[in-house]
Amino acid sequence: MKQEVYDVVVIGSGIGGMSAASLLTHEGYRTLVVERLPQIGGRFSTVEYKGFKLPTGALEVEAMGLIAELYSEVGAGFEVRPLAKLCYRIGGEDVPMLYKGGLRALLLTASEDEEVTGRVMAALKRGMGWEEPSNSISFREWLSEYSSNEKVLGVFQGMIASFMGINAYELPAGEFIRWLKITRSYPAIYGHAPKGNLALMESLAKAMRAQGGEIWTRCETKQILVTDEVARGVVVQTDKDEMEIASRVVISNAGPQKTVELAGSENFDKGYLKQMKESLRPASSIMIHTVSDRPLLEHADSLILTEARRVNWIACPTEACPELAPPGKHLMVSYSTPAFNFPPYDFAQEIAWHLQDLKENIPRFGSEGDILAVNCFHGEWPAFRTWLGYDLPQKTPIENLYNVGDAVKPSGRTGLPASVASGRMVVEDVKSRIKPGEA
Amino acid sequence: MKRENYDVVVIGSGIGGMCAAALLTQEGYKTLVVERLPRIGGRFSTIKYKGFKLTTGAMVVEIGGFIEQIFGRVGAKFEVHPVASPRYRIEGKEYELPRKGGLRTIVSLVSGNERESEGVMSAIKRGLSWQKPSDSISFREWLLQYTQNERILKTFWALITAVQAVNDHELPTGEFFRYLQVPRPPNYGFAPRGNLALMESLAEAIQANHGEVRTRCLAKQIIVTDGMVRGVIIQKDKDETQIAAKVVISNAGPRKTVELAGRENFDKGYLKQLNETIRPAPIFWVQAATDRPLVECPMLYLTGARRVNLVVCPTLVCPELAPHGKHLLMSGGAPDSSLPPYDFEKEKKLNIQDLRDNFPGFDEHTEILVASYFREDWPTYHSWPGYDLSQKTPIENLYNVGDGVKPPGWSGLRACAQSARLVVEDIRGRFKPGEA
What we know:
The complex is a heterodimer of chains A (439) and B (436).
Chain A: E1 2-11, H1 15-26, E2 31-34, E3 46-49, E4 52-55, E5 61-62, H2 66-74, E6 81-82, E7 86-90, E8 93-96, H3 102-111, H4 114-129, H5 139-144, H6 150-164, H7 173-183, E9 190-192, H8 197-210, E10 214-216, E11 220-227, E12 230-237, E13 242-252, H9 256-263, H10 270-279, E14 285-292, E15 302-305, E16 311-315, H11 317-320, E17 330-336, H12 347-361, H13 365-368, E18 370-377, E19 401-403, H14 415-433
Parallel strand pairs in A: 1-2, 1-13, 2-10, 7-15, 13-19
Antiparallel strand pairs in A: 3-4, 5-9, 6-9, 7-8, 11-12, 12-13, 14-17, 14-18, 15-16, 16-17
Chain B: E1 2-11, H1 15-26, E2 31-34, E3 46-49, E4 52-55, E5 61-63, H2 66-74, E6 81-82, E7 87-90, E8 93-96, H3 102-111, H4 114-129, H5 139-144, H6 150-164, H7 173-181, E9 187-190, H8 195-208, E10 212-214, E11 217-225, E12 228-236, E13 239-250, H9 254-261, H10 268-277, E14 283-290, E15 299-302, E16 308-312, E17 327-333, H11 344-358, H12 362-365, E18 366-374, E19 398-400, H13 412-430
Parallel strand pairs in B: 1-2, 1-13, 2-10, 7-15, 13-19
Antiparallel strand pairs in B: 3-4, 5-9, 6-9, 7-8, 11-12, 12-13, 14-17, 14-18, 15-16, 16-17
């Protein structure tokens, strides 16, 4: 078997893996990313289909915050065009989300009641400024102590399902408050990558290669090598042959279950395996792409629904980025979350409800929209690898073997920034433990 | 009703409440401590019985650590006589162990097999230097992955029950590792005039800084409006007084705090967590008078007994605690389940049998003064290690201190003191003295 030596091997080129790899390369670590697919990015990538650039998972990108900081730190180009307008649909009206006082305005529109709004806002404020609520109950249960108004619940349900991929009753109360605290710390400006998300990932890959990092696609990891409970490298399968790569550190972006499978469950302690089994639970969602000759959303290019059966978020990426569709065509992407995030899923029924919601909420959907593609995210290709608050730590019990990505999110984080944050935390730990070239 | 104003009211004068009050008065906060009993100190106090000064709870006092620091900081006298060096009785022989590497020595003595003890110690080392094991299994389950040797298992059980007050099969694994990482005091000792004297010197420091400590003073109600604490209603003799305060700190245990403030003022999640988490740790406890010291060392860990894991003889360094010519022998032992129901007679028999077996002449030279449980509302700890609540309650400006809100990894008196320090730091960050 051929042999190679690196400081760090990263398995999987999702945003978590690429964040860690680009930062480590930037710090001088000899780093290799191995990706089994022909293209990088995982669920933050692009597929070309009938002249459209469709997302493989994540759609919108935060224009400020952790992702933008990562790109600027490693010297990668970051082209993201901001949305024109994010609205919440409440009682048939599209209410713009303001950067300041936005939540209060939404709740007031929903409840038409100053007292209820004041009570809920005061409880949220106390949760952020005094003591976070306990995770022993769900956010929905927590909220019901302050309001039983269904429209108020609808606003939170729409928000939680859109940003976190789960339902309000599935989210631990403390996690919501931590998320709110974090999102309030910088302006939540979202946008789209005009050339698709793959282009953004390639820009990170380019920066990484320029600094001596390597990325091998179509390269499947067969095994993580472990002796005496310490990670020693990986065995990979390339087009040509099997190869052993020795490394000081192994970072897996393949999800904790896959990491255990690759390293051998006999190498993990029982407590970790138990925690993994009891905690991890993927969030699933359905994404439908609809094509039309003129935009189907009237007042916004990103819309959160608060009263629909299933659909919680609709976006029109081609408004800011017409490059994503053939000339003259418009793309509408809608997401729905099942009412219950555990298998078995009845996807046929979920899709039917999704389409019914679109018919009822988007007036010209039936007459002008053509369905281009329907994607169900679940199992091995989920919306999120685990619900918020059900994450594992980044470190595994095997020394120098880490996980990154959306099953090891830091508390209170969701979406792309959560995976980036996990990557950064791992990099900080690696830096404190070994120096570049010590391998 | 009479009315008074304070910055802070502390309910209960245990070590947690008194440390908080001492630190706050020193910072200039106008502070009142109310204690329902005639004496202060709670489970860190002294009762006189047949000429002996008996502890109401804590068996030893930490020296050179966090407690002594607080005494020093507030100018309270800290009179404690040290144990030269604790001993461990292992396989019938007594050992003094180095502070560093002590655990390794014990495991290697018990095992007698270098490879086996190395396997256990390197797993512990990895847990400390790489990743703390998950709390999803108990320490016993975790340890079984590395050894099946019953003598090693038994030794860990004895050490854990002695310092963490629950059985190894009840202790979340991560909590064992956090315990090893929390700074431990350099030494232990005994207060020659009893623990109450130490608390009284803390009370003097509070009074010197214009704080007040009232005994025989019952907290009847914690006043809450709009999710914020406003003060306390207290009763002394027959008189009720309403004390307005910006902050209320309860050292009465989280359950009592909820009862005093009214369940309806707490959010459901907190009550659920309280209900599911808090579980008192019981220890069976013997205090005996002896006419000669039955031990050579005032602090002795037993690693091979049925129940008894720690024996102390404070009169070896503090003869003042007993009538002339007499000695005091105390032992603690954990029942095999820390959850009720407890079989008092069975535990008593096993604990006393352990003392007989380990100390020849026990029956001839000993009179048992106290044989009982710490449990329920007078427990060893208000909650097991790893089963604590946070110091803040959902009610703004209402905090708990003490051994139901220990920070992770902390045990003993220092856990209570640390909870107090965390609360005082939070208060300092939120408002200044006199802002009430």
